[in-house]
Design brief:
- The protein contains 5 helices and 2 strands.
- The protein is mainly alpha-helical.
- Strands 1-2 form a two-stranded antiparallel sheet.
- Strand 1 and strand 2 form a beta hairpin.
- The longest helix is centred in the middle third of the chain and has 46 residues.
Length: 178
């Protein structure tokens, strides 16, 4: 027996519908892979099963193509049917996405700084106390050395606070409409 043509309509039985979805999803992903391989096209497919479970396929990968699609303002201009509010909405989403990416990068950098500072604090603590468990055990010279180290640390903290304040001011200024 060969293949037979079926009528395209909603499958009534839910278990049959799930089986049909699974088979057709696999076929669709195969076809998408073929067109990507044969034509060098970038392809992304995102779908939800009848049970609301997400499935995706992307060649080379879903995230890069989705980001490329979302950042492409010219696509809306090419449609010709878009109105100004849609264009403004896409521009706003694009701007928010860029801000989010920048903030995410800043957070990552701050976490690196935190690890470095924690390491320096631990090393500094070991150096300051020279293996002694209490500040009371330190000599006068060691206390003077500790005072100098703490003053240097205070200056570094002030510099870091000033940098953070400038960053927050610049961020606030960039959010205000001109």
């Amino acid at each position: 027996m060969g293949r037979r043509k079926i009528e395209i309509k909603l499958v009534k039985d839910s278990s049959c519908r799930q089986v049909t979805f699974s088979k057709r999803r696999t076929g669709l992903f195969k076809k998408a892979n073929e067109i990507a391989t044969l034509c060098g096209a970038e392809v992304v497919i995102i779908m939800f099963s009848p049970g609301c479970k997400p499935y995706s396929f992307g060649q080379p990968d879903v995230n890069s193509i989705a980001e490329k699609f979302l950042n492409k303002k010219s696509k809306i201009d090419d449609l010709g049917e878009s109105n100004d509010s849609e264009i403004e909405g896409v521009a706003k989403v694009d701007k928010l996405h860029k801000q989010f990416t920048k903030l995410k990068r800043n957070l990552k950098d701050e976490k690196k700084c935190e690890k470095i500072l924690e390491k320096e604090i631990k090393e500094g603590k070991d150096l300051l106390f020279d293996g002694k468990t209490s500040i009371d055990e330190l000599s006068f010279d060691e206390l003077l050395k500790m005072k100098g180290s703490l003053e240097k640390l205070g200056e570094k903290v002030k510099e870091h606070v000033a940098e953070l304040e400038m960053s927050s001011i610049l961020l606030l200024l960039s959010k205000k409409p001109i």
